[in-house]
Structure formats: C-alpha cells, structure tokens
Amino acid sequence: MKITKLLLVMALAGSSLNQASAQNASSAPAARHVGDGVRSIGDSDRYVAMPEDNRPKAFKPKASLVSNSQMLDMEMLAPSASGDCGSGSGICNSGSCGSGCGSSGLVSGCGNKSTEYWMNMESLLWFGQRRHSPTLITTANQGVLPVAGDPGVTGQFGGPDGTPTGLLTGYSLSGGKYLDSCQKIAVGGRVFGVFQNSQTRTVTSDGTTSVGIPFYNTGINAEDAYLVAFNTGAVPVSAGTVTARTDLNMIGAEASGYFLLGRSSDHRVDLVSGYTYNKLKDSTTLVSSTTDQFTGNLIPDGTVFQTNDLFETANNFHGAHIGMLSSVIHKRVTLSTLAKVSFGSMNQTASVRGFTTQDFNGTATFPGGILTQQSNITEFSRNTFAFLPEMRVKMGYSVSECIQLTVGYSFMYWSSVALSGNQIDHTVDFSQALGGAASTRPAFSFADSGYWMHGVDLGLSMNY
After folding, report:
1. CA-CA distance, 152 to 86, in Å (whole number)?
2. In this structure, what DSSP letter does residue 57 have?
3. DSSP string, 192-229
4. pTM (predicted TM-score)
C-alpha cells in the first residue's frame, strides 16, 4: 500500500512539473504568474520576475540550435519526405521545413517561392593533356635526309613534347526536380561532352624541302625515313604530301540523386550519388601521297604511292559516383562547389589498320602502310577497373528572379584510358611488305595511361 501511494505521489508531482514547464515555455516574458496551478487567497494578476539562475554553468541548459535561424537546420541532417511542409503548391513553409527553407536550394530560388525544377545550359571551353606519339613528320633543307634526330631535321608532328589538343569546345545540359516541397530530396541528370577536336599538320613539297615519315629501320639497324619529298640538289627523287591528324572526342551522361545533409538561410550541403557513363575516343591518322621521280630504279617514273596508317582507341566507362555539392547564396550571387568521384569498369579497345595503293597503269592495293604492317594490324579489347574524379566551381549572378548567368571551372581525370599515340611502334621491318619472312616489328603492345581535361564553363541557369 505504501509503495502504491508513493508511486501515485510521484506521478502527480511529475504531471505538475510538466504543466509548469509548458506554461513557462509558452509565456512571453521570462516570469511566472503568482498562483499558477492552484488558486489561493491573495493571488492576483501581478507578474514576479524569476530569480537569477546561480547554478554552475555545467548544470545550465544549452541554447537550442534549432531556434536560431542562422544556425544549422538539424532537422535536415536526417532527410525525410514526411511531415507538413507546405500545401503542396511548391511554397515551402519555413516554420515546418526549418531555417532558410527555399532560399538556398541546389540552385537559387525564384523570389520567395521554392523552386521545383531547374535547368542548366553551358558552353565548355576546355583544354586537354598533351597526347604522346613518335615523331610522325619531319622536314629538312634540300639535300638533307629527313631522319629524326639528325642535325638540321625538324619534327613537325608528334615527338617527345607530345601533341597539344588545342581548344576543346563542347556543351553541357543538366536539369532536375525536387521530390518534396522542403527541397530535401531531388533527382537530376546531365549530358555533356567535347566533340571532334582535330589537330592536323599537312606538309607538301616538290623536293626543294625534304619531307619524310621517320622510323627505325631494322634492315640497317638505324633511324631512317620514308621519303615523301626529296631532291639531292641535282637529282629529283620524289615529290608529295603527307598529313598527320589526331581526333579526340568525349561524351558523358549522369543520373543522380541529391540528398540534403544540412542548410542554413544562405547555405546548403547535399550528398550526390548515382550512375555515370563516359566515352573517350582518340585516333591518329597518317596519310601520304608520293610521286616517284627517280630515274634508274626499278620503279617507273610517275608511279604514285599512297600510304594510310590508322590507330584508333575507344574507352567506355560504366560506374557509380558519389560526392558532395555545396552552395552559398548572397543576394544575387551564388557560389557552388562540387567534388565527386566515379568508379567502375572501363572497356578499352584499340584498332590498328593500314594499307598502301600503287597507281601506275592501274591500281593495286597492299596491306600495311608505313607504321602499320601485318605484324601489328589488329583489333584488341579488354576491361579494367578505373575511377574518374571530377571537381567543379561555379559562380552565378541572378539577372532576374529565376534566371542566372554562370561562369565556372571544371577538372576531370581518367585513371586508365587507351590513347592512340601510345599504340604506335616506330620500329619497322619492311621485309614482310616485300614478301619476306614473317616479322614481329612493328609490334602491337597495348598500353594505357591516365588523362585529364580542364577548362571554363559559361552558362545559363533557369529555375521554375
């Protein structure tokens, strides 16, 4: 019986304390009404100031983070689509969504309205890492053999310094939609790429300038050159044209989910995760047309030889990505940063093809060019693990409530790609072209490497 009475008293005391705490929290001034709870003689409508809290600091309650509109919205640390967050019209109720609701979404909002969709259109002005290959074209003064490395001989394409990509122009289109009016969860997609960037070098000569395609000749065990155009100064040997060309293009596509981690009135941080597809293609082409002018050899004067060498690679990536997106808004200006990494399977393919045509009283075609022979003409494919880090920094300026002009910087890296120049072997045994014994040079030896691109993005963002 005593235990029952004790529990009853404790329950009534707890109920009284909870009631007093609720009244104290809801009252405007920091005071209490005399006579709250049970009326007694002498109670009036007077308010009496609460006594000073002299407890040690460790025993005092800490200020609430949620009550400060400039502090982190702790409710957003656990994104959820549940709860009353507006009427469903797209207007976010800041009282239920937390501080800063609607003011700092993935992109800036339209005035006081919480945006539901966004779309970004950008022009890409990028540059890529130099691509390496053996020297493919050499020139020299008349009478000087265009052998790579000899005095007076100049490399015109390829070589130790690599081939610059020049300006890589492309486009990016992205967009998305929030799945709840509190802007906690969103889905989006992006398609982007740089298309058909070409670097070309063409040299034509009647022999007054020596022009050659350099290679290491196993027949003499020394550096040599195929004479596209040559004149000894007294005897014409050949005249012609040679063109070296590289082509690079890249396309990517993404599907992402955005999950709000935290935000304040002018800042938010989102987790980004989803699927990535990327394709990087690269090719190197070497084409020559040479007219034989040397009298006394076994080749009739005026015979035209056309050689074609093609080295082509393609890299197809499928994987997942994860990263962090942060955005800050101050008046009309928005600053956003994205850091993410994709990881998955890279399918690498390489193709080596070549042929030579001879035109004199009819046309004949033979397999192999100069740097492509039967020993290395092939098709090759393999799968390997790769990762693609990406970083973007973007600044936007709102020209109207729902339109922004943006400028940014992007950096992308491929950990493992096959590039065409890396598949070229410049050591050649021409005996196989003449019907001799089978040779192993030039050899096909698959090689891959890392590669990067970076540049400026100019765009337009629309929110609605």
Report:
1. 78
2. G
3. EEEEEEEEEEEEEESSSEEEEEEEEETTTTEEEEEEEE
4. 0.76
| Integer Cα distance of 201 and 374 in angstroms | 26
Tell me if 455 sits within 8 A of 394, measured CB to CB.
no
Going from the C-alpha of 6 to that of each of 10, 17, 18, 456, the distances in angstroms are: 6, 17, 19, 75
Give dist(CA 395, CA 424) in Å, integer: 43
Instruction: For residues 90 and 72, give the distance between their C-alpha atoms in angstroms, rounded to a whole number.
Output: 23
Q: Name the residue among 359, 452, 461, 460 with its Cα closest to residue 412.
A: 452
Closest listed residue to residue 212, CA positions, set 138, 305, 307, 284 = 138
First-last CA distance in the chain? 69
* 447 touches 382 (CB < 8 A): no
Q: CA 29, CA 48: separation in Å to the nearest integer?
A: 10
What are the C-alpha distances in Å from 336 to residues 41, 264, 411, 459? 65, 15, 15, 14
Q: Tens digit of pLDDT for each residue in 134-148?
A: 999 999 999 999 999
Sign, Cα dihedral of 39, 44, 46, 49 = negative
Are 386 and 346 a contacting pair, CB within 8 Å?
yes
Tens digits of residue pLDDT in 396-443: 999 988 899 999 999 999 999 999 999 999 999 988 765 555 678 999
Q: How many CB atoms lie within 10 A of CB 39?
A: 8
Count of H helices and E strands in the chain? 2, 18
Task: List Cα–Cα distances, 285 to 246, 307, 338, in angstroms.
Answer: 6, 11, 37
Please state whether beta strands 209-217 and 427-428 pair in parallel, antiparallel, or not at all (unpaired): parallel
Q: How many CA atoms lie within 13 A of 323 on its CB side?
A: 21
On whether the CB atoms of residues 438 and 375 are closer than 8 A, the answer is: yes
Q: What is the DSSP track for 368-436?
A: --SS--TTT-EEEEEEEEEEEEEEEEEEEEESSSSEEEEEEEEEEEEEEE--GGGG---EE-TTTTTT-
pLDDT tens per residue across span 11-42: 444 444 344 444 443 444 444 444 444 444 44
How many whole angstroms from its chain centre is CA 424? 27
DSSP code of 326? E
Q: How far apart are CA 75 and CA 127, in angstroms?
A: 43
DSSP-derived 3-state class of residue 52: coil
Q: Residue 308: which of 355, 351, 350 has the closest Cα?
A: 355
Contact 408, 302 (CB under 8 A): no
Tokens of 451: 């590669």
